[in-house]
Sequence to fold (348 residues):
Amino acid sequence: TGIIQLGAIIAHLPMNIVAIPTNVLPFLMTQNSKTGLGGGFGMKAVMETFNATLTAGLPRVLSSGYSDVSYFDKLIADAEKGDAGKAALTKIGLTLPEARYLRDAIASGQLIPAQTNSIIATARSDMSSRPRMRKFIDLWMLPFARSEEMVRRIAGLTAFRLEYDRQIASGKSSADAFDLANDFARTTLNKTLGDYNFMARPAAWRHGITSLLFMYKTFPLTTIQLFWSLGKGGKGLMALGLFLMTGLTGMPFAENLEDLLDTILQQSGMGSSVRLEAAKFIEEILPGWSPFFLKGLVNQYVPADVASKFSVGSPIPGTSVLLAGESPVRALGEVFGPAAAAAYGVLY
Fold:
């Protein structure tokens, strides 16, 4: 069911890439002074490096060769031989250390489309004897896989470039700077876009149906953990990004709080809704603006439900269970993930 939901939808390209301004950029721009989490590079340096990476890297990330370790092996070998090989790297907007980073990160799995592979691996385990179905799954998931792959590559390369340049400027050798930048890029990806490795999950959520359920919760949990781990500046930037993407209802725990308040209102006989009252209040002050405040500015102009994709308003499942008229699809979706909700919708 997860494959049906996520595959063959071109809108996932913009939906996946907006994870960069909500999660990646605040992490790189700021640093928590108490824990040291984050890059602390500042807005100017991060945006310049990000724009350069996006401009040069976007078309190549979407090409098939850019995903192959052998592609980078040849580029690196040619660059080590002489100026012609280095010129070939320069032509595609890379330095030799950056090419080595991409090669190693792809080989180690840092830059693979992690969520896509998790979904496909689950499906393939039941289709080992059906090669045609496996090929169809790979093709069906291609738009989502490529967009996720693109985001991870751009985020990883941006983080590597920033940290490598900082370490070189501090007097580190090229080898030491490479190792430190590689570690920082890995941390950036795990802290901002999520680590879908089975071993990074609680033991009870590593196998079977529970592994699929946890997969849908990885990004929201990563986002909430990141939000509370950043310093004040990082929290502010991240809150602004989330607000633009999801509105007030997508902020951490907002929907859970809304469910609890609505339950209290209904049980007390008032029969009102916190969201309805908020919409009325906004409309009185700024007529026509309630959708922007409640669901996000971006969601009004992008042809996809960005607010649902990036909402972290309901990390605690099942808080709406006592609400009058609660939809079974929504309740199932919160507790067991979108796969269960979609299955219920098909059956009933």
Summary: Residues 1-8, 115-127 have pLDDT under 50 and may be disordered. The CA atoms of residues 187 and 310 lie 21 Å apart. The two ends are 15 Å apart (CA to CA).
